[in-house]
Design goal:
It contains 11 helices and 8 strands. It is an alpha/beta fold. The protein has an 8-stranded parallel barrel with strand order 1-2-3-4-5-6-7-8, surrounded by 5 helices. Helix 1 links the parallel strand 1 (7-11) and strand 2. Helix 5 (108-120) crosses helix 7 (141-152). The longest helix is centred in the last third of the chain and has 19 residues, at 182-200. It is globular and about 45 Å long. It binds phosphoenolpyruvate.
């Protein structure tokens, strides 16, 4: 564990209607009431954002979106801008999730544009990176992470990126029940932090939070969180049930 405030973030993906999201957010709010020393974020689907924002008012749970588009407005059917997300009550936005890279043509270049758009509205990007199983087996994990970070954060300076969160999510561990060992997670997180040191300097690298994502569950969260460069978790499946997710928030109890 580190001196950085841990962040436990839930990505609800394409799950829950507005009504279901409100119900889950209300339950979570009461379950985590009084939590100290941990930040919490949930990212419901777009159509639930405004309703969930009302529920979260006055709580310590931040609201995030799962993606955005980089243009401010215009003829971009189906897209959502950073300004719209802020208006809906978001403070965070997930960018570059592997499902977006895999199914929706997200590239390191589009990730870079989206991070710029998020920052322009003071939204905190949760910037996702991670290697596939084939890339890991080929010994390419670090070179993949290196490229994702260098291109994703190209042309930024450290001041632009203050508050940004990086999520290391090995694709082979997402939704598979196959968690990276804590040593694998630590090794990747340490690599990412030292790359951020090279690119943006030590003060930035020492304060940026690097989350682990990939089949985090109540029974493995503590071991992961004990690693010095693991600053929290980005959670898919286990974030959908408020009881289970709240156990992740209270990982230290
Ligand atoms: C994710 O999609 O970011 C994720 C980590 O999913 P899961 O927790 O279900 O593996």
């Amino acid at each position: 564990m580190t001196s950085r405030t841990p962040l436990i973030a839930g990505n609800w993906k394409m799950n829950k209607t507005g009504t279901q999201a409100v119900e889950a957010a209300s339950r979570l709010k009461s379950l985590v009431n009084g939590v100290r020393g941990v930040q919490i974020m949930i990212a419901p689907t777009y159509t639930a954002l405004s309703q969930v924002a009302q529920v979260l008012k006055g709580s310590a749970i931040a609201l995030g979106a799962q993606d955005l588009f980089w243009e401010k407005q215009g003829a971009f059917t189906g897209k959502i801008s950073s300004e719209m997300l802020v208006d809906a009550g978001c403070s965070h936005v997930i960018i570059g999730h592997s499902e977006r890279r895999q199914f929706f043509g997200e590239t390191d270049q589009t990730v870079n544009r989206k991070i710029r758009a998020a920052i322009s509205e003071k939204l905190i990007p949760v910037f996702c990176i991670g290697e596939s199983e084939a890339e890991r087996d080929a010994g390419d994990t670090f070179s993949v992470l290196d490229k994702q970070v260098r291109v994703g954060l190209k042309d930024f300076v450290s001041d632009d990126l203050s508050g940004i969160v990086v999520a290391y999510e090995p694709i082979w561990a997402i939704g598979t029940g196959k968690t990276a060992t804590r040593e694998q997670a630590q090794e990747a997180h340490q690599f990412i932090r030292s790359l951020l040191d090279t690119l943006f300097g030590k003060p930035f690298a020492n304060t940026v939070r690097v989350l682990y994502g990939g089949s985090v569950k109540p029974d493995n969260v503590r071991a992961l969180m004990e690693m010095p460069d693991v600053d929290g978790a980005l959670v898919g499946g286990a974030s959908l049930d408020p009881e289970t997710f709240s156990k992740l928030v209270f990982f230290n109890d």
